[in-house]
Amino acid sequence: MSTRPSQHTPSQNAGPTTPDVLLRVDSLLDDEERQIRDTVRALVKSRIAPDIASWYEKGELPARELAVELGSLGLLGMHLQGYGCAGTSAVAYGLACLELEAGDSGIRSLVSVQGSLAMFALHAFGSEEQKQHWLPEMAAGRKIGCFGLTEPDFGSDPAGMRTRAVRSGDDWVLNGTKTWITNGSVADVAIVWARTDDGIRGFAVPTDTPGFTARTITSKMSLRASVTSELVLDDVRLPESARLPGATSLRAPLSCLNEARFGIVFGSVGAARDCLETALSYAQSRMQFDRPIGGFQLTQQKLADMTLEYGKGFLLAIHLGRAKDGDGLAPEQVSLGKLNNVREAIAIARTARTILGASGITGEYPVMRHANNLESVLTYEGTSEMHTLVIGQALTGTAAFR
Ligand code: TGC
Ligand code: FAD
Description:
With 402 residues, this protein is α+β, with helices and mostly antiparallel strands. Helix content is 50%, strand content 14%. Pfam families: Acyl-CoA_dh_1, Acyl-CoA_dh_M, Acyl-CoA_dh_N.
Protein backbone atom coordinates (compact mmCIF):
# COMPACT_ATOMS: atom_id res chain seq x y z
CA MET A 1 0.00 0.00 0.00
CA SER A 2 1.35 3.46 -0.90
CA THR A 3 2.31 5.83 1.90
CA ARG A 4 2.92 8.70 -0.52
CA PRO A 5 1.39 11.94 0.80
CA SER A 6 -1.68 13.00 -1.19
CA GLN A 7 -4.32 15.68 -0.99
CA HIS A 8 -5.93 13.56 1.73
CA THR A 9 -2.86 12.50 3.66
CA PRO A 10 -1.02 15.64 4.76
CA SER A 11 2.60 15.11 5.64
CA GLN A 12 4.03 16.61 8.80
CA ASN A 13 6.38 18.73 6.70
CA ALA A 14 3.86 20.05 4.20
CA GLY A 15 2.95 23.23 6.10
CA PRO A 16 -0.32 24.03 7.88
CA THR A 17 -3.33 21.90 7.01
CA THR A 18 -7.00 22.16 7.96
CA PRO A 19 -8.95 19.94 10.35
CA ASP A 20 -11.13 18.67 7.47
CA VAL A 21 -8.13 17.68 5.33
CA LEU A 22 -6.37 16.10 8.31
CA LEU A 23 -9.49 14.09 9.12
CA ARG A 24 -10.14 13.18 5.45
CA VAL A 25 -13.70 14.40 5.79
CA ASP A 26 -14.30 14.45 2.03
CA SER A 27 -13.50 10.76 1.73
CA LEU A 28 -16.52 9.97 3.94
CA LEU A 29 -18.96 11.59 1.49
CA ASP A 30 -20.11 10.80 -2.03
CA ASP A 31 -20.26 13.32 -4.87
CA GLU A 32 -23.89 14.27 -4.29
CA GLU A 33 -23.33 14.75 -0.56
CA ARG A 34 -20.31 16.96 -1.20
CA GLN A 35 -22.33 18.97 -3.71
CA ILE A 36 -25.19 19.56 -1.25
CA ARG A 37 -22.72 20.46 1.47
CA ASP A 38 -20.92 22.92 -0.80
CA THR A 39 -24.20 24.53 -1.93
CA VAL A 40 -25.34 25.13 1.64
CA ARG A 41 -21.88 26.31 2.66
CA ALA A 42 -21.95 28.85 -0.16
CA LEU A 43 -25.41 30.05 0.90
CA VAL A 44 -24.20 30.52 4.47
CA LYS A 45 -21.15 32.41 3.26
CA SER A 46 -23.08 34.77 1.00
CA ARG A 47 -26.39 35.17 2.82
CA ILE A 48 -25.85 34.46 6.54
CA ALA A 49 -22.24 35.26 7.42
CA PRO A 50 -22.30 38.94 6.38
CA ASP A 51 -25.30 39.78 8.63
CA ILE A 52 -25.45 37.23 11.40
CA ALA A 53 -23.45 39.21 13.97
CA SER A 54 -25.72 42.20 13.49
CA TRP A 55 -28.93 40.11 13.60
CA TYR A 56 -27.63 38.46 16.77
CA GLU A 57 -26.77 41.76 18.41
CA LYS A 58 -30.15 43.27 17.54
CA GLY A 59 -31.99 40.06 18.47
CA GLU A 60 -33.75 39.79 15.13
CA LEU A 61 -34.01 37.47 12.14
CA PRO A 62 -35.60 38.10 8.72
CA ALA A 63 -37.29 34.72 9.06
CA ARG A 64 -39.84 35.11 6.27
CA GLU A 65 -37.29 36.22 3.67
CA LEU A 66 -34.84 33.52 4.69
CA ALA A 67 -37.52 30.81 4.66
CA VAL A 68 -38.29 31.54 1.00
CA GLU A 69 -34.57 31.45 0.12
CA LEU A 70 -34.00 28.23 2.06
CA GLY A 71 -37.13 26.76 0.45
CA SER A 72 -35.94 27.64 -3.04
CA LEU A 73 -32.81 25.52 -2.37
CA GLY A 74 -34.96 22.60 -1.23
CA LEU A 75 -33.73 22.78 2.38
CA LEU A 76 -37.15 22.77 4.07
CA GLY A 77 -38.42 19.27 4.82
CA MET A 78 -35.60 18.16 2.55
CA HIS A 79 -35.54 14.52 3.73
CA LEU A 80 -39.31 14.08 3.31
CA GLN A 81 -40.79 12.44 0.21
CA GLY A 82 -43.38 14.08 -2.06
CA TYR A 83 -45.48 17.24 -1.52
CA GLY A 84 -42.76 19.47 -2.97
CA CYS A 85 -40.06 18.14 -0.63
CA ALA A 86 -36.60 17.23 -1.95
CA GLY A 87 -36.58 13.64 -0.64
CA THR A 88 -32.84 13.52 0.10
CA SER A 89 -31.01 11.02 2.30
CA ALA A 90 -30.68 11.56 6.04
CA VAL A 91 -26.93 12.14 5.61
CA ALA A 92 -27.56 14.89 3.05
CA TYR A 93 -30.05 16.50 5.43
CA GLY A 94 -27.54 16.23 8.26
CA LEU A 95 -24.80 17.85 6.19
CA ALA A 96 -27.14 20.74 5.38
CA CYS A 97 -27.82 21.17 9.11
CA LEU A 98 -24.07 21.10 9.77
CA GLU A 99 -23.39 23.90 7.31
CA LEU A 100 -26.36 25.99 8.49
CA GLU A 101 -25.28 25.71 12.11
CA ALA A 102 -21.72 26.65 11.16
CA GLY A 103 -23.47 29.92 10.26
CA ASP A 104 -25.61 30.08 13.40
CA SER A 105 -27.67 27.65 15.50
CA GLY A 106 -30.66 29.96 15.00
CA ILE A 107 -30.65 29.37 11.25
CA ARG A 108 -30.49 25.60 11.74
CA SER A 109 -33.32 25.96 14.28
CA LEU A 110 -35.52 27.72 11.72
CA VAL A 111 -34.94 24.83 9.32
CA SER A 112 -35.22 22.08 11.98
CA VAL A 113 -38.51 23.30 13.33
CA GLN A 114 -39.98 23.86 9.89
CA GLY A 115 -38.84 20.56 8.37
CA SER A 116 -38.24 18.07 11.16
CA LEU A 117 -40.96 19.12 13.58
CA ALA A 118 -43.87 20.93 11.88
CA MET A 119 -43.60 19.38 8.39
CA PHE A 120 -42.60 15.96 9.72
CA ALA A 121 -45.63 15.92 12.05
CA LEU A 122 -47.96 16.70 9.13
CA HIS A 123 -46.17 14.23 6.85
CA ALA A 124 -46.20 11.37 9.39
CA PHE A 125 -49.53 11.94 11.13
CA GLY A 126 -51.59 14.31 8.95
CA SER A 127 -54.53 13.53 6.67
CA GLU A 128 -54.03 13.64 2.90
CA GLU A 129 -55.97 16.91 2.87
CA GLN A 130 -53.70 18.46 5.54
CA LYS A 131 -50.58 17.34 3.68
CA GLN A 132 -51.81 18.76 0.37
CA HIS A 133 -52.83 22.00 2.04
CA TRP A 134 -49.71 22.73 4.09
CA LEU A 135 -46.65 20.81 2.88
CA PRO A 136 -45.97 22.25 -0.60
CA GLU A 137 -46.26 25.82 0.73
CA MET A 138 -44.05 24.99 3.71
CA ALA A 139 -41.44 23.27 1.50
CA ALA A 140 -41.28 26.46 -0.56
CA GLY A 141 -40.95 28.59 2.58
CA ARG A 142 -44.07 30.60 1.80
CA LYS A 143 -45.75 29.24 4.94
CA ILE A 144 -43.91 28.80 8.23
CA GLY A 145 -44.67 26.22 10.90
CA CYS A 146 -43.96 25.90 14.61
CA PHE A 147 -44.26 23.00 17.06
CA GLY A 148 -45.85 23.53 20.46
CA LEU A 149 -45.05 20.80 22.97
CA THR A 150 -43.36 22.56 25.91
CA GLU A 151 -45.50 24.35 28.51
CA PRO A 152 -44.52 26.68 31.34
CA ASP A 153 -44.80 23.84 33.90
CA PHE A 154 -43.86 20.91 31.64
CA GLY A 155 -40.57 20.97 29.76
CA SER A 156 -38.65 17.71 30.18
CA ASP A 157 -41.87 15.98 31.20
CA PRO A 158 -44.34 16.75 28.40
CA ALA A 159 -46.60 13.88 29.54
CA GLY A 160 -47.93 16.26 32.19
CA MET A 161 -49.16 18.88 29.70
CA ARG A 162 -52.23 20.91 30.68
CA THR A 163 -53.27 22.26 27.29
CA ARG A 164 -56.67 20.68 26.68
CA ALA A 165 -58.74 19.96 23.61
CA VAL A 166 -62.41 19.37 24.35
CA ARG A 167 -65.13 18.23 21.95
CA SER A 168 -67.87 20.79 21.20
CA GLY A 169 -70.34 19.38 18.69
CA ASP A 170 -68.30 18.50 15.60
CA ASP A 171 -65.51 20.89 16.65
CA TRP A 172 -62.64 20.93 19.13
CA VAL A 173 -61.99 23.78 21.57
CA LEU A 174 -58.37 24.25 22.70
CA ASN A 175 -57.19 26.10 25.81
CA GLY A 176 -53.68 26.35 27.21
CA THR A 177 -50.23 27.90 26.95
CA LYS A 178 -47.13 26.68 25.14
CA THR A 179 -43.79 28.36 25.71
CA TRP A 180 -40.28 28.59 24.24
CA ILE A 181 -41.72 27.92 20.80
CA THR A 182 -39.27 28.49 17.93
CA ASN A 183 -40.82 30.33 14.94
CA GLY A 184 -43.99 30.91 17.02
CA SER A 185 -44.63 34.57 16.20
CA VAL A 186 -43.86 34.17 12.50
CA ALA A 187 -45.75 30.92 11.98
CA ASP A 188 -48.76 30.39 9.73
CA VAL A 189 -49.50 27.04 11.30
CA ALA A 190 -48.80 25.81 14.82
CA ILE A 191 -48.67 22.08 15.47
CA VAL A 192 -50.15 22.03 18.96
CA TRP A 193 -50.14 18.99 21.24
CA ALA A 194 -53.05 18.82 23.68
CA ARG A 195 -54.63 16.46 26.18
CA THR A 196 -58.06 15.03 25.32
CA ASP A 197 -60.28 12.55 27.17
CA ASP A 198 -58.69 9.86 25.00
CA GLY A 199 -55.05 10.88 25.47
CA ILE A 200 -52.64 13.26 23.75
CA ARG A 201 -53.56 14.46 20.26
CA GLY A 202 -52.03 16.87 17.74
CA PHE A 203 -53.72 19.75 15.90
CA ALA A 204 -52.67 21.86 12.92
CA VAL A 205 -53.77 25.29 14.14
CA PRO A 206 -53.84 28.12 11.57
CA THR A 207 -52.37 31.00 13.53
CA ASP A 208 -55.09 33.41 12.34
CA THR A 209 -57.72 31.36 14.18
CA PRO A 210 -59.57 33.58 16.73
CA GLY A 211 -58.24 32.99 20.25
CA PHE A 212 -54.68 32.14 19.13
CA THR A 213 -51.97 34.63 20.09
CA ALA A 214 -48.17 34.48 19.95
CA ARG A 215 -45.89 36.73 22.01
CA THR A 216 -42.19 36.97 21.18
CA ILE A 217 -39.87 36.18 24.08
CA THR A 218 -37.14 38.81 24.27
CA SER A 219 -34.14 39.31 26.59
CA LYS A 220 -32.52 36.07 25.43
CA MET A 221 -28.73 35.79 25.82
CA SER A 222 -28.67 32.74 23.53
CA LEU A 223 -30.18 31.99 20.11
CA ARG A 224 -30.79 35.69 19.59
CA ALA A 225 -31.06 35.27 15.81
CA SER A 226 -34.10 33.05 16.22
CA VAL A 227 -37.75 33.79 16.93
CA THR A 228 -38.85 32.25 20.25
CA SER A 229 -42.43 32.70 21.45
CA GLU A 230 -45.15 31.96 23.92
CA LEU A 231 -48.39 30.67 22.39
CA VAL A 232 -51.72 31.25 24.12
CA LEU A 233 -54.79 29.28 23.07
CA ASP A 234 -57.93 30.87 24.47
CA ASP A 235 -61.04 28.98 23.35
CA VAL A 236 -59.51 28.25 19.94
CA ARG A 237 -62.25 26.48 17.97
CA LEU A 238 -61.14 24.05 15.28
CA PRO A 239 -62.93 21.59 13.02
CA GLU A 240 -62.17 17.86 13.32
CA SER A 241 -60.25 18.22 10.04
CA ALA A 242 -57.55 20.17 11.96
CA ARG A 243 -56.72 17.15 14.12
CA LEU A 244 -53.78 15.01 12.95
CA PRO A 245 -55.54 11.65 12.52
CA GLY A 246 -52.40 9.52 12.82
CA ALA A 247 -51.31 10.99 16.17
CA THR A 248 -52.86 8.98 18.98
CA SER A 249 -50.50 9.35 21.98
CA LEU A 250 -47.38 11.06 23.31
CA ARG A 251 -45.45 8.72 21.04
CA ALA A 252 -46.36 10.98 18.09
CA PRO A 253 -44.67 14.23 19.24
CA LEU A 254 -41.74 12.24 20.66
CA SER A 255 -41.27 10.63 17.23
CA CYS A 256 -40.99 14.09 15.68
CA LEU A 257 -38.28 14.96 18.21
CA ASN A 258 -36.11 12.11 16.91
CA GLU A 259 -35.99 13.87 13.54
CA ALA A 260 -34.99 17.26 14.92
CA ARG A 261 -32.51 15.73 17.36
CA PHE A 262 -30.85 13.96 14.43
CA GLY A 263 -30.35 17.34 12.73
CA ILE A 264 -28.67 18.62 15.89
CA VAL A 265 -26.26 15.66 15.92
CA PHE A 266 -24.85 17.12 12.69
CA GLY A 267 -25.60 20.79 13.32
CA SER A 268 -23.61 21.02 16.54
CA VAL A 269 -20.56 19.70 14.66
CA GLY A 270 -20.93 22.68 12.31
CA ALA A 271 -20.86 25.18 15.17
CA ALA A 272 -17.80 23.36 16.55
CA ARG A 273 -16.04 23.52 13.17
CA ASP A 274 -16.59 27.24 12.86
CA CYS A 275 -15.12 27.80 16.34
CA LEU A 276 -12.15 25.53 15.63
CA GLU A 277 -11.38 27.16 12.27
CA THR A 278 -11.67 30.61 13.81
CA ALA A 279 -9.31 29.71 16.65
CA LEU A 280 -6.82 28.10 14.27
CA SER A 281 -6.73 31.12 12.00
CA TYR A 282 -6.42 33.52 14.95
CA ALA A 283 -3.64 31.45 16.53
CA GLN A 284 -1.60 31.67 13.33
CA SER A 285 -1.77 35.47 13.11
CA ARG A 286 -1.92 36.69 16.71
CA MET A 287 1.58 37.59 17.92
CA GLN A 288 2.64 37.50 21.57
CA PHE A 289 6.18 37.23 22.93
CA ASP A 290 7.34 37.88 19.32
CA ARG A 291 5.72 34.79 17.82
CA PRO A 292 2.30 33.53 16.73
CA ILE A 293 0.42 32.12 19.73
CA GLY A 294 -0.17 28.99 17.60
CA GLY A 295 3.53 28.26 18.07
CA PHE A 296 3.13 27.70 21.83
CA GLN A 297 2.66 24.12 22.98
CA LEU A 298 -0.32 24.96 25.18
CA THR A 299 -2.17 26.47 22.21
CA GLN A 300 -1.27 23.52 20.02
CA GLN A 301 -2.61 21.12 22.64
CA LYS A 302 -5.93 22.97 22.59
CA LEU A 303 -6.06 22.91 18.78
CA ALA A 304 -5.19 19.21 18.66
CA ASP A 305 -7.78 18.29 21.31
CA MET A 306 -10.47 20.37 19.59
CA THR A 307 -9.66 18.69 16.27
CA LEU A 308 -9.93 15.24 17.85
CA GLU A 309 -13.34 15.96 19.37
CA TYR A 310 -14.58 17.66 16.20
CA GLY A 311 -13.46 14.63 14.18
CA LYS A 312 -15.03 12.14 16.58
CA GLY A 313 -18.28 14.12 16.52
CA PHE A 314 -18.28 14.16 12.72
CA LEU A 315 -17.63 10.41 12.56
CA LEU A 316 -20.44 9.73 15.03
CA ALA A 317 -22.81 11.92 13.02
CA ILE A 318 -21.93 10.17 9.76
CA HIS A 319 -22.22 6.76 11.41
CA LEU A 320 -25.69 7.57 12.75
CA GLY A 321 -26.68 9.13 9.42
CA ARG A 322 -25.65 6.03 7.48
CA ALA A 323 -27.60 3.89 9.95
CA LYS A 324 -30.67 6.13 9.57
CA ASP A 325 -30.42 5.75 5.79
CA GLY A 326 -30.01 2.00 6.28
CA ASP A 327 -32.16 0.09 8.72
CA GLY A 328 -33.05 3.11 10.86
CA LEU A 329 -32.14 4.53 14.25
CA ALA A 330 -33.57 3.82 17.69
CA PRO A 331 -34.32 6.92 19.82
CA GLU A 332 -31.49 6.07 22.24
CA GLN A 333 -29.03 6.03 19.32
CA VAL A 334 -30.09 9.56 18.42
CA SER A 335 -29.57 10.45 22.10
CA LEU A 336 -25.97 9.19 21.93
CA GLY A 337 -25.26 11.61 19.11
CA LYS A 338 -27.11 14.61 20.52
CA LEU A 339 -25.59 14.27 23.99
CA ASN A 340 -22.02 13.79 22.80
CA ASN A 341 -21.93 16.25 19.95
CA VAL A 342 -23.58 19.19 21.70
CA ARG A 343 -21.50 18.65 24.84
CA GLU A 344 -18.26 18.52 22.83
CA ALA A 345 -19.28 21.48 20.65
CA ILE A 346 -19.72 23.61 23.77
CA ALA A 347 -16.34 22.48 25.07
CA ILE A 348 -14.75 23.37 21.71
CA ALA A 349 -16.46 26.78 21.66
CA ARG A 350 -15.19 27.56 25.16
CA THR A 351 -11.65 26.43 24.39
CA ALA A 352 -11.67 28.42 21.15
CA ARG A 353 -12.75 31.45 23.15
CA THR A 354 -9.67 31.17 25.36
CA ILE A 355 -7.41 31.14 22.28
CA LEU A 356 -8.97 34.39 21.09
CA GLY A 357 -8.36 36.06 24.46
CA ALA A 358 -10.36 39.25 24.89
CA SER A 359 -11.28 39.30 21.21
CA GLY A 360 -13.15 36.07 21.87
CA ILE A 361 -15.88 37.83 23.81
CA THR A 362 -16.76 40.19 20.97
CA GLY A 363 -19.25 39.86 18.14
CA GLU A 364 -16.41 40.42 15.69
CA TYR A 365 -15.70 36.69 15.94
CA PRO A 366 -18.36 33.96 15.96
CA VAL A 367 -17.06 31.99 18.93
CA MET A 368 -18.96 33.54 21.84
CA ARG A 369 -22.14 33.61 19.74
CA HIS A 370 -21.81 29.88 19.06
CA ALA A 371 -20.99 29.16 22.72
CA ASN A 372 -24.07 31.06 23.87
CA ASN A 373 -26.28 29.44 21.23
CA LEU A 374 -25.10 25.98 22.20
CA GLU A 375 -26.45 26.54 25.72
CA SER A 376 -29.95 26.48 24.18
CA VAL A 377 -29.05 23.54 21.98
CA LEU A 378 -27.91 21.64 25.09
CA THR A 379 -31.36 22.23 26.61
CA TYR A 380 -33.85 22.05 23.77
CA GLU A 381 -34.84 18.85 22.04
CA GLY A 382 -34.24 17.09 25.36
CA THR A 383 -31.74 18.33 27.92
CA SER A 384 -28.36 16.64 28.28
CA GLU A 385 -29.72 15.05 31.47
CA MET A 386 -32.72 13.57 29.62
CA HIS A 387 -30.47 12.08 26.94
CA THR A 388 -28.18 10.68 29.64
CA LEU A 389 -31.21 9.00 31.22
CA VAL A 390 -32.43 7.68 27.84
CA ILE A 391 -29.02 6.05 27.33
CA GLY A 392 -29.03 4.82 30.94
CA GLN A 393 -32.44 3.26 30.39
CA ALA A 394 -31.23 1.53 27.23
CA LEU A 395 -28.19 0.15 29.04
CA THR A 396 -29.89 -0.99 32.25
CA GLY A 397 -33.49 -1.53 31.26
CA THR A 398 -34.55 0.79 34.09
CA ALA A 399 -36.15 4.19 33.48
CA ALA A 400 -34.82 6.71 36.01
CA PHE A 401 -36.92 9.71 34.91
CA ARG A 402 -39.50 9.52 37.69
P1 TGC B 1 -42.52 7.20 27.86
O1 TGC B 1 -43.55 6.49 28.68
O2 TGC B 1 -41.12 6.76 27.91
O3 TGC B 1 -42.99 7.21 26.34
C1 TGC B 1 -44.31 7.48 25.94
C2 TGC B 1 -44.47 6.78 24.59
O4 TGC B 1 -43.60 7.38 23.64
C3 TGC B 1 -42.63 6.43 23.17
N1 TGC B 1 -41.36 7.15 23.07
C4 TGC B 1 -40.85 7.50 21.89
N2 TGC B 1 -41.28 7.27 20.65
C5 TGC B 1 -40.54 7.74 19.64
N3 TGC B 1 -39.41 8.47 19.86
C6 TGC B 1 -38.96 8.73 21.09
N4 TGC B 1 -37.84 9.45 21.27
C7 TGC B 1 -39.68 8.25 22.18
N5 TGC B 1 -39.55 8.32 23.52
C8 TGC B 1 -40.57 7.63 24.05
C9 TGC B 1 -42.63 5.33 24.22
O5 TGC B 1 -42.20 4.11 23.65
C10 TGC B 1 -44.08 5.31 24.62
O6 TGC B 1 -44.80 4.68 23.60
P2 TGC B 1 -46.11 3.80 23.92
O7 TGC B 1 -46.64 3.41 22.60
O8 TGC B 1 -45.63 2.63 24.76
O9 TGC B 1 -47.04 4.68 24.70
O10 TGC B 1 -42.66 8.74 28.19
P3 TGC B 1 -42.21 9.57 29.45
O11 TGC B 1 -43.35 10.48 29.81
O12 TGC B 1 -41.70 8.67 30.55
O13 TGC B 1 -41.03 10.50 28.89
C11 TGC B 1 -39.85 9.99 28.38
C12 TGC B 1 -38.88 11.16 28.03
C13 TGC B 1 -38.40 11.85 29.29
C14 TGC B 1 -37.71 10.54 27.30
C15 TGC B 1 -39.60 12.17 27.12
O14 TGC B 1 -40.62 12.80 27.77
C16 TGC B 1 -38.68 13.24 26.58
O15 TGC B 1 -38.04 13.01 25.55
N6 TGC B 1 -38.60 14.42 27.25
C17 TGC B 1 -37.85 15.57 26.70
C18 TGC B 1 -38.82 16.57 26.10
C19 TGC B 1 -38.25 17.26 24.89
O16 TGC B 1 -37.28 16.85 24.29
N7 TGC B 1 -38.91 18.30 24.48
C20 TGC B 1 -38.53 18.99 23.26
C21 TGC B 1 -39.59 19.97 22.83
S1 TGC B 1 -39.43 20.51 21.16
C22 TGC B 1 -38.04 21.44 21.13
O17 TGC B 1 -37.32 21.56 22.06
C23 TGC B 1 -37.73 22.10 19.84
S2 TGC B 1 -36.33 23.08 19.81
C24 TGC B 1 -36.11 23.09 18.17
C25 TGC B 1 -35.17 24.08 17.63
O18 TGC B 1 -35.37 25.32 17.79
O19 TGC B 1 -34.24 23.63 16.90
P1 FAD C 1 -36.91 21.59 32.96
O1 FAD C 1 -37.61 20.40 32.38
O2 FAD C 1 -37.61 22.39 34.01
O3 FAD C 1 -35.49 21.14 33.45
C1 FAD C 1 -34.64 21.97 34.28
C2 FAD C 1 -33.44 21.13 34.68
O4 FAD C 1 -33.87 19.99 35.45
C3 FAD C 1 -32.68 20.56 33.48
O5 FAD C 1 -31.30 20.52 33.76
C4 FAD C 1 -33.22 19.16 33.38
O6 FAD C 1 -32.36 18.26 32.69
C5 FAD C 1 -33.36 18.80 34.85
N1 FAD C 1 -34.29 17.70 35.05
C6 FAD C 1 -35.63 17.67 34.81
N2 FAD C 1 -36.13 16.46 35.07
C7 FAD C 1 -35.09 15.70 35.49
C8 FAD C 1 -34.94 14.33 35.89
N3 FAD C 1 -35.96 13.48 35.88
N4 FAD C 1 -33.72 13.90 36.24
C9 FAD C 1 -32.64 14.73 36.19
N5 FAD C 1 -32.70 16.03 35.82
C10 FAD C 1 -33.92 16.50 35.47
N6 FAD C 1 -40.13 23.52 22.98
C11 FAD C 1 -41.09 23.24 22.03
O7 FAD C 1 -42.05 22.51 22.32
N7 FAD C 1 -40.99 23.75 20.78
C12 FAD C 1 -39.98 24.55 20.39
O8 FAD C 1 -39.93 24.99 19.24
C13 FAD C 1 -38.97 24.89 21.35
N8 FAD C 1 -37.97 25.75 21.02
C14 FAD C 1 -37.08 26.16 22.00
C15 FAD C 1 -36.16 27.17 21.71
C16 FAD C 1 -35.29 27.63 22.70
C17 FAD C 1 -34.33 28.72 22.40
C18 FAD C 1 -35.29 27.01 23.98
C19 FAD C 1 -34.31 27.44 25.03
C20 FAD C 1 -36.21 26.02 24.28
C21 FAD C 1 -37.13 25.60 23.29
N9 FAD C 1 -38.12 24.65 23.59
C22 FAD C 1 -39.09 24.34 22.65
C23 FAD C 1 -38.27 24.16 24.94
C24 FAD C 1 -37.29 23.04 25.31
O9 FAD C 1 -37.61 21.85 24.69
C25 FAD C 1 -37.32 22.91 26.84
O10 FAD C 1 -36.68 24.06 27.36
C26 FAD C 1 -36.60 21.65 27.31
O11 FAD C 1 -37.35 20.49 26.95
C27 FAD C 1 -36.38 21.65 28.83
O12 FAD C 1 -37.52 22.05 29.52
P2 FAD C 1 -37.43 23.20 30.64
O13 FAD C 1 -36.71 24.37 30.05
O14 FAD C 1 -38.80 23.41 31.15
O15 FAD C 1 -36.50 22.62 31.76
